[in-house]
Structures are given as structure tokens and as C-alpha cells.
Predict the 3D structure of the following.
Amino acid sequence: MSGLSDPYLKIGRAKFHLDNLNREIDTFHSSEPYEIKSYDDLERQEYVRTFRLFDVPDDISLIAGDALYCLRSSLDQVACGLGKQRI
């Protein structure tokens, strides 16, 4: 099937985005984007630990969306290519 080169290109582009996404997530994680607080709640006799995650940068969401779009597009191209095949 000669029409499969386009889906492979889209998958390659998705891999590019996923590699970039991993780098962005590593950078975000290394900046310690969270806050952990611990305290004793004497009234309830509990030890309380709270966790707060700061806002995730928009770049991470956009890169993830681009990767997913490329993967979906490659599936569309495969389906269209198979639909045009004669049996």
C-alpha cells in the first residue's frame, strides 16, 4: 500500500512531540512545582499532610495535544487508505 508513508510521517512527528513533552515535564518536575505541608491537628488527634501542585505550564498541555493530534491523524490516514483499497 503506497499511501502508508503519510501516516508514518505523522507518527514520526508525534514521537518528536512526545520527546519534547518528556523534556518539558522533566524541567517542570525539577523545579519542584509543589508544596507539602505537615502539621498536627490536636483537636482531631490527627497528623495532617497537605499537597498542593502549582499550575502546569501551558506548553505541556499544548505539546501533549499536538502529539495526540498527530497520532489521531495517522489513524485517519490509515483508515482512508484502507477504504480506498480494492478487494
